[in-house]
Design a protein that fits this description.
Lambda Exonuclease, Chain A, alpha/beta
């Protein structure tokens, strides 16, 4: 079963949210979704395409990995000229490959979100599959205008195990059609489909009951 990379973050944020999106096809937007969309639209605009003598930067690049049955789009890929790099179709010389994912804000504790990191790692595996390279992954935080390199070389086994586990669980939900229950302690205040997931019950009202009976 083929999965889209963007589904991974939905699942990591909340398995129930993932189930509602993929099984029920539910969707809604809130301010957090809209803000992220604006940032990604700016990244994918022509203004973010760059072609220099030592670096080529492309936005919204489609990537895939047939072995993992995984595909998606990267925010940005840099091809940087390097003697130790690989040949890229259509380009002259050798290049190193950098994947850059844009996020609105850096976590308050200055750590990298595991969900963000695994998203970039999935993109990396697709890029490595296409260009037979060993790409690097970065997250660029718009609020602080800073790029953080992810430790894929040192923690590749850990990321691979986690990605395999997540994709297995995601495929099981899609295949069975069973939407997971809400996790205890799940933070739902920022979720765009909160009202679809947990409909708010109307307060008991005698007036409303009388009005309904009079109709």
């Amino acid at each position: 079963m083929i999965l889209n990379i963007r589904q991974i973050q939905h699942y990591m944020y909340c398995p129930r949210r993932f189930g509602l999106l993929e099984v029920n096809k539910d969707w809604a937007e809130n301010v957090f979704v809209i803000k992220a969309n604006i940032i990604h639209e700016n990244v994918h605009s022509a203004k973010h395409k760059y072609h220099g003598s030592s670096k080529i930067e492309l936005s919204s690049v489609a990537v895939y990995n047939d072995d993992l049955e995984l595909y998606g789009n990267t925010d940005c890929i840099e091809f940087v000229k390097s003697a130790d790099g690989v040949y890229i179709d259509g380009l002259q010389g050798r290049y190193g490959v950098n994947i850059i994912e844009y996020k609105p804000s850096r976590p308050r504790d200055n750590t990298v979100s595991q969900a963000d990191a695994i998203q970039v790692y999935a993109q990396k595996l697709c890029a490595d599959y296409i260009w037979k390279c060993k790409s690097s992954g970065y997250i660029y935080y718009s609020d602080v205008r800073k790029r953080i390199m992810l430790p894929f070389d040192e923690e590749a086994e850990e990321y691979s195990r986690l990605l395999d586990k997540l994709m297995g669980e995601m495929r099981e939900i899609i295949q069975t059609g069973i939407i997971p229950d809400r996790k205890r302690g799940q933070k739902c205040s920022g979720c765009s489909i909160q009202e679809l997931c947990i409909p708010q019950k109307k307060k008991y009202s005698v007036r409303s009951i009388i009005n309904e009976e009079d109709r």
